[in-house]
Specification:
Elements lengths: L6 H17 L5 H19 L3 H11 L1 H8 L21 E12 L3 E12 L6 E12 L11 E6 L2 E2 L11 H6 L3 E6 L5 E4 L6 H17 L8 H9 L7 H9 L10 H17 L4 H4 L1 H18 L4 H18 L6 H15 L7 H22 L6 H28 L1 E3 L2 H25 L3 H26 L5 E3 L5 H20 L2 H26 L2 E5 L7 E6 L2 E6 L4 H14 L7 E4 L7 E4 L2 E7 L13 E5 L6 H7 L4 E4 L5 H13 L4 E3 H4 L3 E4 L17
Parallel strand pairs: 3-6, 12-13, 15-16, 16-17, 17-18
Antiparallel strand pairs: 1-2, 1-4, 2-3, 4-7, 5-6, 8-9, 10-11, 10-19, 11-12, 14-15
Length: 698
């Protein structure tokens, strides 16, 4: 690679460390110094023969400082001009502007850009930051974007994952600079709707109109959710059956609007403009550039302007700009330029999974795909076409494999085969979707088009379901630690180096990395054979406790719906390698079970069961369903070493037991209060030295 040919890559070398050091959580000084040394070495190696690049590098060194200044209010939950994240014990009056409005069945999710706040009877103070608010669904009328909002709310930190391996809302919203949330009741808020319609409201209304034209009365059919996802980037219409079929087939990425869809739009517009070259506005090169750019960015905004769409729109715009200027374009430099521009305006995008997956896939395609395609050049055109699709899928999967395993703990090898169907079908559905939007109002043509479009969507769904039912289609339960993830990422980039230079020592080093990764996986499996874990899950609908010893699992469960139990505990059980139960004790009898597990005895006390005269003596009590008992007598006669209150208890019961336990110096864990499940390693478990909420899942 000639470094001088990619100026934006050199700028990105300094921008990324600035973002990671100033916005990344838990970056240690040693890693920061090492990464900075690597960056400086690469930059010096690229410019040592040209002194004028040194001046540009000197300016680029200031980029981390600039990023720190631009994003200073996005780094932590308390870095606001008036410390919005402090003093969360009392309600505050917030004033600001609505920047997102997402209606739901029970609640309407609102993102508020705070401009001022007021505590008690004090005057209004200037504030800055974003908060997540939830309003009653009955009050959600219209989009209300850009409106002035005033509400009284008790702010709380966004909770982390409620159960091991569950959705981590604190991390997800933190990557978007949102750390606080609050729930408002009727009459707790007021909104000033401007007389003039804002551009945000016009955009939402336009999107709603397009959605009605696209889906019409067929929106409830499962297959029409595919059209909404491909054309509008709206995956809320996808049913669990459709999601499962595409996930197992390794084709879920096609339902997330990305460069594939933007490229199809750009190709379609270019083809249409080629038919209209006899018209002056379409035949002139600047006219073609304007129409192409308008179509690309219009589609990007219509689909929600996610990281992958923004990356593709910027990349195509830069390439079109170079072609219009009669300059030879570089896909690599356009890629780095799009990353630089996006991260300059939105630094926290770097920590989003979609951003990382999008750029990793494009890097793999740009580097590996031409080299893989050159290995075999079939003369028969259809075979050559399928070979090109296979090489594209293989190149993208090679670079995204570590990210998919680390973030989603699963991987589907069928992406290589389903790509033969997915890419042509996506192009056809995208074209049919735009025709459906344009012609849906025509009586006869619209009906026939809707009928044919629905048949294509149904056939596409069944093909994906067939691929997903193949044996071993989806590898699930792959839990990598951070060292394994970094080693897998290093292996992916090492493949680039080995393919480029083709030296046997590099191949040997790659084999060593593969062996090291396999050894780490084997060590993880051996550690699972010696594990001793207990997990009390956070579930408001019932008690769910897993006792894990090696590959054996015993479960206490009062959850009547097996699907709910699976949804809550599946990730944790896969993580510990005990997905299939050894024994399940259904907590539906009149007997309150006592279990002797390892060094401690566990007692389950349920408010829905007959009250015992005296509880059996046990080391640890698990209390559920707001059991009302003579607690003072019980705690005096049979004091346990630990009391665990699961999420089924009422606030009054939890508050009363917390006071009693504190007066008797008995440790107590309130799962509903701490917001996450209780998990401990029985080999080192000490009731007197319990892990904190932040350390629970480390």
């Amino acid at each position: 690679m000639h470094w001088q040919a990619y100026p934006f890559f050199r700028l990105l070398l300094f921008l990324l460390p600035g973002i990671v050091f100033l916005h990344g959580p838990g970056v240690r000084l040693g890693g920061a110094v090492l990464l900075l040394f690597i960056v400086v070495f690469l930059a010096w190696h690229s410019v040592r023969y040209r002194w004028r690049y040194g001046f540009g590098i000197s300016l680029a060194i200031l980029l981390p400082v600039m990023i720190s200044w631009r994003g200073k209010d996005l780094t932590t939950d308390t870095r606001f001009s008036t410390d919005l994240g402090n003093n969360l014990t009392q309600p505050v009056l917030l004033g600001g502007q609505v920047i997102s409005w997402n209606p739901g069945r029970r609640w309407t999710q609102v993102t508020l850009s705070v401009e001022a706040l007021r505590r008690d009877s004090l005057s209004w103070q200037e504030a800055k930051g974003r908060v997540l608010l939830y309003l009653p669904a009955a009050d959600s009328t219209g989009s209300n974007l850009g409106c002035t909002f005033v509400g009284r709310v008790l702010l709380r930190r966004i909770p982390a994952a409620a159960n091991p391996g569950g959705f981590d809302g604190r991390r997800y919203w933190g990557q978007q600079g949102i750390y606080l949330q609050g729930f408002l009741g009727e009459g707790d808020w007021w909104m000033d709707v401007p007389e003039k319609t804002t551009w945000q409201t016009r955009l939402v209304n336009c999107r709603s109109w397009v959605e009605r034209r696209l889906l019409g009365a067929q929106g409830k059919a499962p297959e029409w959710g595919i059209a909404a996802a491909l054309v509008l980037g709206d995956k809320s219409h996808l049913t669990p059956e459709v999601r499962s079929a595409f996930t197992h087939a390794g084709a879920m990425h096609v339902l997330a609007v990305s460069g594939l869809h933007v490229g199809m739009v750009a190709f379609g517009v270019r083809w249409l403009l080629g038919l209209l070259t006899w018209l002056a506005p379409f035949g002139h090169r600047w006219g073609r550039f304007a129409w192409n750019t308008a179509a690309i960015w219009g589609f990007a905004i219509l689909t929600g302007a996610g990281p992958a769409v923004l990356r593709a729109a910027l990349l195509f715009t830069i390439l079109l700009w170079g072609r219009t200027l009669d300059r030879r374009g570089s896909s690599w430099n356009a890629l780095w330029a799009s990353a630089f521009i996006l991260l300059w305006f939105r630094p926290l995008l770097f920590f989003q999974v979609g951003f990382q997956l999008s750029y990793a896939a494009v890097v793999g395609i740009l580097f590996f795909q031409p080299r893989l395609e050159a290995c075999w050049r079939p003369a028969f055109h259809p075979v050559r076409y399928f070979w090109q699709l296979t090489t594209v899928g293989l190149a993208a999967q090679w670079m995204t494999f570590p990210l998919c395993v680390y973030y989603f703990h699963q991987f589907s090898w069928l992406g290589l085969l389903s790509g033969w169907v997915v890419i042509p079908a996506a192009a056809l559905i995208l074209a049919m979707g735009f025709l459906q939007i344009l012609l849906a109002g025509i009586p006869l043509a619209g009906e026939w088009l809707t009928w044919g479009f629905g048949g294509i969507l149904h056939f596409f769904w069944k093909i994906m379901a067939f691929f997903g039912q193949l044996p071993g289609a989806l590898w699930q339960g792959i839990w990598w630690t951070e060292p394994q993830f970094w080693l897998g990422l290093l292996l992916a980039f090492w493949g680039i180096i080995a393919v480029k230079y083709r030296h046997w020592t590099l191949l040997a080093a790659g084999g060593f990395l593969i062996g090291l990764l396999a050894g780490m996986n084997h060590r993880t499996i051996e550690q699972q054979k010696e594990q001793q874990q207990v997990i009390v899950y956070n579930h408001r609908g019932g008690t769910l406790v897993d006792f894990i010893c090696g590959n054996q699992r015993l479960t206490w469960s009062s959850v009547t719906d097996p699907r709910q139990e699976s949804a809550i505990a599946l990730a944790a059980r896969q993580r510990f390698g005990v997905e299939h139960p050894t024994q399940t004790i259904q907590l539906t009898t009149d007997v309150m079970p006592v279990l002797q597990w390892q060094k401690h005895s566990w007692l389950w006390l349920d408010g829905q069961r007959p009250l015992p005269v005296t509880p059996p003596q046990a080391d640890i009590w698990v209390v559920s369903s707001s059991l009302w008992a003579p607690w003072e007598t019980w705690l005096d006669l049979y004091p346990p070493q630990l009391i665990i209150l699961d999420a089924t208890n009422r606030y009054s019961t939890r508050s009363y037991l917390r006071k009693l336990a504190a007066s008797r110096a008995i440790p107590l864990i309130d799962i509903a209060e701490q917001g996450s499940a209780f998990q401990c390693d029985l080999r080192t478990f000490d009731p007197l030295n319990l892990p904190t909420d932040e350390e629970a899942f480390d």
